[in-house]
Specification:
The complex is a heterodimer. Chain A folds into two domains: 2-76, no CATH class; 91-313, MetI-like fold (Orthogonal Bundle). Chain A has helices spanning 2-29, 35-40, 46-56, 62-76, 89-124, 129-143, 146-157, 180-214, 217-224, 229-257, 261-266, 272-281, 285-313. In chain A, helix 5 (89-124) crosses helix 8 (180-214), helix 10 runs antiparallel to helix 13 (285-313) and helix 12 (272-281) runs antiparallel to helix 13 (285-313). Chain A is mainly alpha-helical. Chain B is α/β, with parallel strands linked by helices. Among the domains of chain B are: 116-188, no CATH class; 286-381, no CATH class. Helix content of chain B is 35%, strand content 19%. In chain B, strand 9 (242-247) and strand 10 form a beta hairpin. The longest helix of chain B has 18 residues, at 205-222. In chain B, 44% of the residues are buried. Classes of the chains: A mainly alpha, B alpha/beta. Chain A binds chain B through residues 216-218, 220-229, 236, 239-240, 313-316, and chain B through 70, 73, 75, 99, 103-108, 111-112, 114, 116, 119-124, 133-134, 137-138, 169, 171, 182, 185-186, 188.
């Protein structure tokens, strides 16, 4: 098992290097505004711009730039400096990470709390009004794009712009350590927007899995040996049906930690997603590179965690 | 407390109940409402089993044999199922029993084992835990006592090294061992009735014989009744005292095992017998498959349900629905067939002598059928 994890981590590192190489190439191939021009400002002459280019290392060929970048990371854990603000990428990311983590954790809790019970109840009460109502609303939420749902809830409930102004609107986010109450209230709408679609997806997924599992032979065996129906459903049915859901959950969390671009933008939450968008707008390559690597790392780590967890959840799976 | 910690039933042999059988099924009907129509899975069957005896229920898939036994445990209950008749077990009607009362019967008084032991065991739980669950669902004993019982049960069904095997997962067992574990689970509470639904079908031939021998041995030791459901007459030949042959939801022939093999009466039973290889058949004799397919249980054939597949069909058989009636001069033997008893006797003798069904028919046709009834033969051939 330890060997398996080690191998997976080493492969993850290789993958991260490939991801950053790809980001380098993409940034080179696609037209962007000259970062030096942006940095120099309006009242600058060619000499200044050229000077900045040299300073940023932009005059070197791309492979030298890539080599220098890799050296910085591996030798000094230095991910470079923003072209735009000159702040170090590491410090920018660590500044923004708490907001993204807050957003992710709350949304995950919310969608698990909503999606899982709804999925279970729908499967058990299959074909009833309750099942149909839940699955119809789930389908509705699945069909709503995040940017639209985000604007909708702001229009309905957001302060300053909403019809019924009961929740704080865009830009109201403050850190947990600054003011826990404001932190919580400001995140209610973003959490809901992020969680709604996911809760719908999870409830549908779990319902489908559970319905399938409840038709399995081993469920019939459990009933045939006189196990109580509640125990049949929870210990035998849900135990099997929830395992694939947990897999998806792990990967979703990994993905979200890389930044929820749309939700963070709509609600002006200064997290990784918003940082990334702003960096792209400023052709601020080191930040884009940093956030991309961070997102890729979260996805890779989540995958490793899920695979390792699976070996504990399903005894038939063993890694060697 | 000391009484409770002993998971076995009271010592001593069961008192004999005289004429009342352990399980008495009377006119059981089970139908399911589906989008395609009403499926008449079981259509008025009656049978009974006594303690220490074995009933074999034989038929193809879709004959209703599994549905009837699942109904015994209440496992076919659903809003879409309509269940009628009576099913008296120890004097109580299983069909009208409350869900929770029936749950207490399941796995306790009546236990069941299934066809595919791999899919019938939960893949995520250790075999021992699944055995313990069977004990703990009905007995108020400690976990340690249940575990000890699980180890005893594994030993009882001949699993080597039960102390260690109790902590193995089902996928770590071989097919035969899994079925042994299933049997152990069924025996956890020393049931009075064990229903085995195709217990050997998914197993290798050598393992099949072992499992059947195990069931027989356990029956002798524990005195339970067994209902064995199979499509394979070879299996019931070894183990059953009595055999009921089912076709399209009905019992078409019912007799002791000796009677069924010595003088089978129903063309379907003949078909089953002639389609299995036997060592005592003449060398070089070909196996004769039963032509056609099992009928739809939504739109069943008119008259005798077997008539579309019967090589000896007469025109009248397509209109008249045969009842299960005693066979003359063969006490305890019942058959639902419209052919005359002496005609059936001649056909079976001809089949035994290695004749094909068509030849056997020609043999009896001139004697048994009026000229008017000769036409359906031509019709059928077209």
């Amino acid at each position: 098992m330890l060997r398996y994890i080690t191998r997976r981590i080493l492969w993850g590192i290789v993958l991260l290097i490939l991801v950053s190489a790809l980001t380098f190439i993409l940034f080179q191939v696609f037209p962007t505004t000259d970062p030096a021009l942006l940095r120099a400002g309006r009242n600058s002459n060619q000499a200044d711009i050229q000077h900045i280019r040299v300073e940023l290392g932009l005059t070197h060929p791309i492979y030298v730039q890539f080599w220098d970048y890799m050296k910085g990371i591996f030798l000094h854990f230095n991910f470079g400096y923003s072209y735009y603000s000159q702040a170090s990428v590491t410090s920018l990311i660590f500044n923004r990470l708490p907001a993204t983590i807050s957003l992710t954790v709350g949304a995950v809790v919310l969608w698990v709390v909503m999606g899982i019970p709804v999925g279970i109840i729908s499967a058990i009460k299959r074909g009833t009004f309750l099942d149909r109502a839940s699955m119809t609303s789930a389908l509705t939420f699945v069909s709503m794009p995040t940017f639209w749902l985000g604007l909708l809830v702001l229009y309905l409930f957001g302060q300053v712009v909403g019809l019924v102004q009961i929740f704080p609107g865009p830009g109201s986010y403050v850190g947990l350590t600054v003011n826990p109450v404001k932190w919580f209230t400001s995140l209610i709408l973003p959490w809901f927007v992020l969680a709604a679609t996911q809760a719908a997806i999870y409830s549908r997924l779990l319902r489908g899995n559970l319905l399938e599992v409840m038709g399995e032979d081993y469920i019939r065996t459990a009933r045939a040996k006189g196990v109580r129906e509640g125990r049949v459903i929870f210990k035998h049915g849900i135990r099997s049906a929830i395992t694939p859901v947990l897999t998806v959950l792990g990967i979703d969390i990994g993905g979200l930690l890389g930044g929820a671009v749309i939700t963070e933008t709509i609600f002006e939450i200064h997290g990784i997603g918003l940082l990334n968008i702003q960096a792209i707008n400023h052709s601020d390559f080191p930040i884009v590179q940093g956030t991309t690597l961070l997102a890729a790392m979260f996805v890779i780590v989540a995958n490793i965690v899920v695979d390792v967890a699976y070996a504990y959840l399903d005894p038939r799976v063993r890694y060697s | 407390m000391s009484v409770q910690s002993e998971p076995t039933r009271g010592a001593g042999p069961e008192p004999t109940r005289g004429a009342v059988p352990l399980l008495q099924v009377e006119d059981l009907r089970v139908s399911f409402h589906t989008d395609d129509g009403v499926v008449h899975a079981v259509d008025g069957i009656s049978y009974s089993v006594d303690s220490g005896r074995t009933l074999g229920i034989v038929g193809e898939s879709g004959s209703g044999k599994s549905v009837s036994s699942l109904t015994t445990l209440g496992l076919t209950r659903s809003p879409r199922a309509q269940i009628e008749g009576r099913m008296l077990f120890d004097g109580r009607d299983l069909l009208t029993m409350e869900d929770d009362a029936l749950r207490r019967v399941r796995g306790n008084d009546i236990a069941m084992i299934f066809q595919d032991p791999l899919s019938a065991l939960h893949p995520f739980y250790k075999v021992g835990n699944q055995l313990m669950e069977a004990v703990l669902s009905h007995r108020d004993v400690s976990k340690q006592a249940a575990r000890d019982r699980a180890i005893d049960l594994l030993e009882l069904v001949g699993i080597p090294d039960p102390q260690r095997r109790v902590d193995a997962y089902p996928h770590e067992f071989s097919g035969g061992m899994r079925q042994r574990a299933m049997i152990a689970m069924a025996l956890a509470n020393e049931p009075k009735l064990l229903i085995a639904d195709e217990p050997t079908t998914a197993l290798d031939v050598t393992v099949q014989a072992q499992i059947l021998a195990l069931l027989e041995g356990l029956q002798r030791r524990l005195g339970m009744a067994i209902i064995i459901i199979t499509h394979d007459l070879g299996v019931v030949a070894e183990i059953a005292d009595e055999i009921a042959v089912m076709y399209a939801g009905r019992i078409v022939e019912h007799a002791s095992a000796q009677q069924i093999f010595a003088s089978p009466q129903h063309p379907y039973t003949w078909g089953l017998l002639k389609s299995i290889p036997r060592l005592d058949n003449p060398r070089g004799e070909e196996l004769v498959p039963i032509s056609g397919r099992p009928p739809s249980l939504i739109n069943r054939p008119s008259g005798c349900h077997f008539h579309p597949r019967c090589p000896y069909v007469r025109e009248a058989h397509k209109r008249i629905d045969p009842r299960l009636e005693p066979v003359p001069d063969d006490p305890g033997h019942e058959v639902a067939c419209l052919l005359q008893p002496q005609v059936r006797g001649s056909i079976w003798r001809a089949l035994q002598a290695g004749q094909t069904p068509a030849a056997a028919r020609r043999l009896v046709e001139p004697a048994a059928s009026a000229p008017v009834e000769a036409t359906p033969l031509a019709e059928e051939a077209s």
